[in-house]
């Protein structure tokens, strides 16, 4: 039972992981992350990479929706911007991987700021509608222009790091997971500073926030820009992972997937972003598994796509009505139970 | 430009001829008065008199149809609200406006927002500047505000779990964190019992004497008003109907008619308009 | 460059305005729910789709006579609206508006998925039921379906305008939207108002969906795209304005027709998006929307 954690300095009190127990758990988690790729088979490695990419993108969306209270339906479109940037840069120039990823983030961020300027001057709901329209425009641009490869898209070569081609899930894991961890750390840090506090204030009471000194448009744009940056980098990772980028790769359904991940995981919580992304990534996999076991499997395969849609929607509605604080809250309750055991409350 | 030295006689806040209307409703008509540095000024008046509208105009939330507001000798009539906060105009709200997603400590830290320097990149890395600034902020708030308002036992509590009186105190703490020159308190003791009211009165006096903060407050509790304020401004129907020391205002027949009513609203309004015309001519 | 073909321009514009009437009808369904419950229904396009699919089922698959199939589809859609309101919107009454909005996003996903499961993802034609005589205005040809669809839309919109202005229920709807607590105190049955609004909106959407579907066919995704244009229409017109829905609907219909004809079909959506951006920059509350006065 963990009773109290006593700090002896303000800096210590502000630390992300503050107790000895947490440090131990963190070390164990780190060890598991390192051992995982050596012990897992191809399928699980693939899933692991996919979960990591989704965590990165979900965290970005969480900054915007969970913490700042603004809804975007364009997460997939911004990932697409990032993915296409990486693909095009690789095709035409020979820049190092890191620069490509940063450029992907920057391009997506620029797109975000452009879209955000008209829509963030008023209420948050306008952003949702503008991003909805923008995602169709993005698809239009991807599909109808020469330099983006038209409807066929762009096929990519494996990324090269120090002469080593990243062409297996195992190798990509060592790119994707550290990048995702960095992005998680950045987001967690954000909310220890005035910027993060300002985002939360905007979500809870934006007009009071303004009178207290927070310039609304600037901060809303900042939040949207950051979340687009995250989406762009995640899109870049996506491109390196799948090595094919087409206009069909980033449909509206994907934006809804990420929104669901934010809601299911728990809005306004970094852990929520992790849990939600992992959960939502596993849902289609579990579905596929279940379908494989049922008789008449061949006919059912075509139904997976609509069933997924219904499932995403139901998860969104269900969690909003019954557990608005998401899986993160369920986790917290379980932890509290173990902290206080053998006492009840 | 040489450093601004406000002479002792220049009021800290000069409000002139503020007119504010929403659609057809006139919220404020020709409102004007001065707030002297280091004073405690109370704005009183019946409900609906326009007191909160006045505060909102001073905060920069509403833009007046005409009139001007001068703060520290500068015209801030067109200045956006966040800049006014940075210039030293602090504020608490009538209906508590704490942020439910933040703890007490974070709510207070938010008050300092406009004075902090951390940028996005600093924040994401949280190494040098962000960490130092946060630590310094924490130390300053703990030693000067949390101790002062006696809220150290609830610093990590989520604000929605707190009783009303403590929430009001946290609001005050957040307003103090803004490092204000003028602290606008909108009904600071509304809904409080006798003991809480006395505590708050003590805090307000201490804020003025220890921190040198000028206080402008909207208040209904006449005891508070009489005991604390140096200057009282009375509003009714969006107009200033009287102002002066607490004693003179207390004895003003206009004021008692405003509060107790003459029974005939039209007659009252006519008298108020006449009084306003007389004052303008004078 | 050849001389401008004014006749052609007139014809295109006429068709555009008439199609705009259809947008206006769908926008009306949206505005009804927003006026009464302050909920932004992002799934409006999917309600149209539901109406169109239900009509197809009753008229084509179950071979009901048209004069039964149409009302049946409208009522069935109304029932759907009631079920949705009761199960998904009512539980969120005290919560921030943001939550109900996100629920409608989830709802749109559910409806599209269900449509693909119950019917299929293919494009379907709806049975014809409108007069087929081409309409001529001077030398300009107007498709009869578009014309009669627009006429129906105008009738419904006029009825709605009158209803909101003069009928007690209309006033009750507006009262509930602006202050639920006060409305309760006045004796207005707030939950009933919510239900009525959603049922009414779903039925209007069904009418709109049947008309739009009979012009261009229906599929699980086609109405979603239509829905985006409808959302732009309500933003341009004002989220809570019936008149705005009409004016903006006609305007957007016209602009889309012009863009589609003179620039190419793919540019229709681009034109709509540009209109959206412009209105947000110039008049964010819409042409006729009420600017909210916020209180601190």
Descriptors for this entry?
heterotrimer, B: 282 residues, alpha/beta, Rossmann fold, 2 domains, four-stranded antiparallel sheet, C: 296 residues, mainly alpha, ABC transporter involved in vitamin B12 uptake, BtuC, two-stranded antiparallel ribbon, 11 helices, 2 strands, globular
Structural class of chain C: mainly alpha
Which pair has the most extensive contact? Answer: A-C, 46 and 46 residues
What is the count of β-strands of chain C?
A: 2
Taken as a percent bin, the fraction of beta residues of chain C is under 5%
Would you tell me the overall average pLDDT of chain C? 86
Beta-strand percent range of chain A: under 5%
Number of helices of chain A: 14
- The rounded distance between the terminal residues' Cα atoms of chain C is 59 Å
List the total number of helices of chain C.
11
End-to-end C-alpha gap of chain A: 12 Å
Biggest pleated sheet of chain A: 2 strands, antiparallel
CATH class of chain C: Mainly Alpha
Blueprint (SSEs and pairs):
The complex is a heterotrimer of chains A (345), B (282) and C (296).
Chain A: H1 10-13, H2 20-39, H3 42-67, H4 75-92, H5 97-119, H6 124-144, E1 154-155, E2 159-161, E3 164-166, H7 169-190, H8 194-211, H9 216-242, E4 244-245, H10 252-265, H11 270-293, H12 297-300, H13 304-322, H14 326-340
Antiparallel strand pairs in A: 1-4, 2-3
Helix pairs in contact in A: 3-7, 3-8, 3-9, 3-10, 3-11, 4-5, 4-6, 4-9, 5-9, 7-9, 8-9, 10-11, 10-13, 11-14
Chain B: E1 13-22, E2 25-35, E3 40-44, H1 51-59, E4 66-71, E5 74-75, H2 81-87, E6 89-91, H3 104-111, H4 120-125, H5 128-149, H6 164-177, E7 182-186, H7 194-211, E8 214-218, H8 222-228, E9 231-236, E10 239-244, H9 246-251, H10 253-260, H11 265-281
Parallel strand pairs in B: 3-8, 3-9, 6-7, 7-8
Antiparallel strand pairs in B: 1-2, 1-4, 4-5, 9-10
Helix pairs in contact in B: 3-6, 5-6
Chain C: H1 6-37, H2 44-61, H3 66-89, H4 97-118, E1 135-137, E2 140-142, H5 144-166, H6 168-178, H7 180-185, H8 190-216, H9 222-237, H10 242-262, H11 267-282
Antiparallel strand pairs in C: 1-2
Helix pairs in contact in C: 1-5, 1-6, 1-8, 1-9, 1-10, 2-3, 2-4, 2-8, 2-9, 3-8, 5-6, 5-8, 6-8, 9-10, 9-11, 10-11
Would you kindly provide a brief summary of this structure?
The complex is a heterotrimer of chains A (345), B (282) and C (296). Chain A has a domain at 40-250.
């Amino acid at each position: 039972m963990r009773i109290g954690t006593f700090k002896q300095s303000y800096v210590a009190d502000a630390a992300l992981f503050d107790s000895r127990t947490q440090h131990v758990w963190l070390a164990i988690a780190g060890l598991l992350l390192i051992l995982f790729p050596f012990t897992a088979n191809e399928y699980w490695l693939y899933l692991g990479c996919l979960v990591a990419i989704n965590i990165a993108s979900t965290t970005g969306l969480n900054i915007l929706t969970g913490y700042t209270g603004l809804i975007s339906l364009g997460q997939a479109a911004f990932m697409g911007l990032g993915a296409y940037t990486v693909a095009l840069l690789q095709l035409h120039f020979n820049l190092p991987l890191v620069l490509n990823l940063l450029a992907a983030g920057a391009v997506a961020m620029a797109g975000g700021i452009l879209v955000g300027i008209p829509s963030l001057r008023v209420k948050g709901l306008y952003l949702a509608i503008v991003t909805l329209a923008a995602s169709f425009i993005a698809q239009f641009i991807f599909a109808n222009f020469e330099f983006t490869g038209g409807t066929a898209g762009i096929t990519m070569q494996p990324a090269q790091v120090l002469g080593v081609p990243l062409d297996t899930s195992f190798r990509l894991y060592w790119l994707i997971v550290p990048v995702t961890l960095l992005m998680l750390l950045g987001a967690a840090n954000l909310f220890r500073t005035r910027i993060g506090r300002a985002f939360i204030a905007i979500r809870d009471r934006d007009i009071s926030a303004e009178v207290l000194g927070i310039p609304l448009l600037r901060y809303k744009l900042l939040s949207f820009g950051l979340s687009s940056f995250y989406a762009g980098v995640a899109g870049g990772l996506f491109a390196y992972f799948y090595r094919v980028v087409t206009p069909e790769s980033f449909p509206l359904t994907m934006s809804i997937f990420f929104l669901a991940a934010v809601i299911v995981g728990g809005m306004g919580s970094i852990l929520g972003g992790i849990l939600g992304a992992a959960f939502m990534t596993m849902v289609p996999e579990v579905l596929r598994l279940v379908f494989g076991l049922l008789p008449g499997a061949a006919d059912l395969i075509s139904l997976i796509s609509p069933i997924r849609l219904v499932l995403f929607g139901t998860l969104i509605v269900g969690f909003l009505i019954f557990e608005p604080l998401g899986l993160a809250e369920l986790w917290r309750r379980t932890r509290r139970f173990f902290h206080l055991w053998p006492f009840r409350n | 430009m040489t450093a601004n030295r406000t002479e002792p006689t220049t009021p800290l806040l000069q409000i002139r001829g503020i007119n504010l209307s929403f659609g057809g409703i006139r919220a404020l008509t020709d409102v004007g008065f001065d707030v002297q540095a280091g004073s405690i000024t109370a704005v009183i008046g019946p409900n609906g008199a326009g007191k909160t509208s006045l505060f909102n105009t001073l905060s920069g939330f509403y833009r007046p149809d005409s009139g001007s507001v001068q703060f520290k000798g500068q015209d801030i009539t067109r200045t956006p609200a966040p800049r006014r906060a940075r210039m030293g105009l602090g504020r608490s709200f009538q209906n508590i406006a704490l942020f439910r997603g933040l703890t007490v400590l974070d709510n207070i830290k938010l008050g300092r927002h406009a004075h902090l320097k951390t940028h996005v990149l600093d924040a994401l890395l949280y190494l040098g500047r962000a960490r130092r600034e946060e630590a310094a902020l924490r130390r300053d708030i703990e030693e000067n505000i949390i101790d002062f308002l006696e809220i150290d036992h609830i610093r990590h509590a989520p604000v929605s779990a707190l009783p009303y009186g403590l929430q009001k105190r946290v609001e005050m703490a957040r307003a103090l964190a803004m490092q204000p020159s003028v602290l606008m308190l909108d009904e600071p003791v509304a809904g409080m019992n006798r003991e809480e009211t006395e505590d708050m009165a003590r805090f307000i006096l201490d804020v003025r004497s220890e921190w040198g903060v000028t206080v402008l407050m909207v208040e209904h509790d006449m005891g508070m008003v009489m005991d604390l304020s140096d200057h009282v401004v009375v509003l009714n129907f969006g107009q200033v109907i009287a102002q002066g020391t607490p004693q003179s205002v207390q004895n003003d027949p206009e004021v008692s008619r405003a509060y107790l009513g003459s029974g005939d609203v039209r007659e009252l309004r006519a008298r108020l308009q006449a009084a306003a015309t007389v004052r303008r001519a004078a | 460059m050849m001389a401008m073909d004014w006749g052609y321009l007139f014809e295109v514009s006429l068709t555009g305005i008439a199609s705009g009437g259809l947008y206006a009808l769908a926008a009306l369904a949206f505005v009804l729910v927003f006026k009464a419950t302050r909920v932004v229904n992002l799934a409006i396009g999917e309600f149209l789709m539901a109406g169109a699919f239900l009509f197809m089922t009753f008229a084509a698959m179950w071979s009901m006579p048209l004069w039964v199939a149409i009302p049946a589809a409208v009522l069935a859609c109304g029932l759907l609206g009631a079920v949705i309101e009761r199960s998904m919107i009512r539980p969120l009454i005290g919560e921030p508006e943001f939550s109900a909005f996100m629920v409608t996003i989830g709802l749109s996903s559910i409806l599209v998925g269900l449509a693909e499961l119950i019917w299929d993802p293919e494009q379907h034609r709806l049975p014809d039921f409108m007069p087929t005589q081409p309409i001529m205005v001077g030398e300009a040809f107007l498709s009869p379906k578009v014309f009669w669809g627009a006429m129906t839309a105008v009738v419904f919109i006029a009825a709605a305008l009158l209803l909101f202005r003069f009928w007690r229920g209309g006033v009750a709807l507006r009262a509930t939207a602006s202050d639920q607590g006060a409305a309760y105190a006045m004796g207005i049955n707030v939950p009933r108002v919510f239900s009525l609004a959603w049922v009414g909106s779903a039925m209007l959407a069904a009418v709109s969906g049947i008309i739009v579907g009979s012009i261009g066919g229906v599929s699980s995704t086609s109405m979603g795209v239509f829905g985006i244009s409808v959302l732009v229409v309500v933003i341009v017109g004002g989220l809570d304005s019936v008149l705005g829905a009409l004016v903006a609907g006609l305007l957007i219909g016209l602009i889309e027709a012009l863009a589609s004809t003179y620039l190419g079909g793919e540019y229709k959506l681009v034109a709509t998006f540009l209109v959206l951006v412009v209105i947000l920059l110039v008049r964010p509350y819409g042409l006729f929307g009420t600017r909210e006065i916020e209180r601190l």
